[in-house]
Amino acid sequence: MNMPPVAIVAGGLATRLHPTTLKIPKSMIEVAGKPFIYHQLSLLKRRGASDVLLCIGNLGSEIQDYVGDGKAWGLRVRYSYDGEKLLGTGGAIKKALDKLPDAFFVLYGDSYLDVDMEPILERFIGSGKQAIMTIYHNRNKLDKSNVVFKDGKILRYGKVQIPEMEYIDYGLSILSKRVFDAWPADTAFDLADVYGRLVNTGEMAAFEVSRRFYEIGSKSGINELERHMASVGMEC
What we know:
By secondary structure, this protein is α/β, with parallel strands linked by helices. It is 26% helix and 27% strand. The strands form four sheets. A seven-stranded mixed β-sheet has the order 5-4-1-6-11-8-12, sandwiched between helices. It has a two-stranded antiparallel sheet with strand order 2-3. A two-stranded antiparallel sheet has the order 7-13. The relative contact order is 0.18.
């Protein structure tokens, strides 16, 4: 099975990590002795990815200077720049669509997700839907839960919490190009807007994962990931 490319959204301002991210992008923050993007690309390679598109904006040239064409990871890495204004997670993907096939993975630039990608792809193809979201039974432990999941279906998704929200968007999805048709080009919007629309129209399939996620959006998240890497004997 051919693995679709992975679009990594890595163009934000990372304000929670100021002042560090005033000088370097979040993807270049050191984690366990190396820039985070090193670990993220290494993990994607181990999990079967071969083609990566980095959607970058703020200080993005530093990421491109470090990663280059991706050969150091055994990957093909390409780039899409937001341009003069930041486009948000959804707008960045919209701008990159001409570099992507009809369906592709989407990953946030601050997420470390050690999960097999092929079963997610198989579920997506079998679902016949326009998109699939990975979800984790979070119960508000790692972050605020934002998904109602029951009988194999996502019934509700969003920032407004209700007690039934025990699951959380894990951070890895597959999207079809056509899900972006409703938004004009060069407009800033969030992927959350796209996901909400897909859930409301019944076009979002679900894949539950059991292994927790890690993220570097905060100092505590960085510390947790470093502890995890140390516990499994990774580069430190």
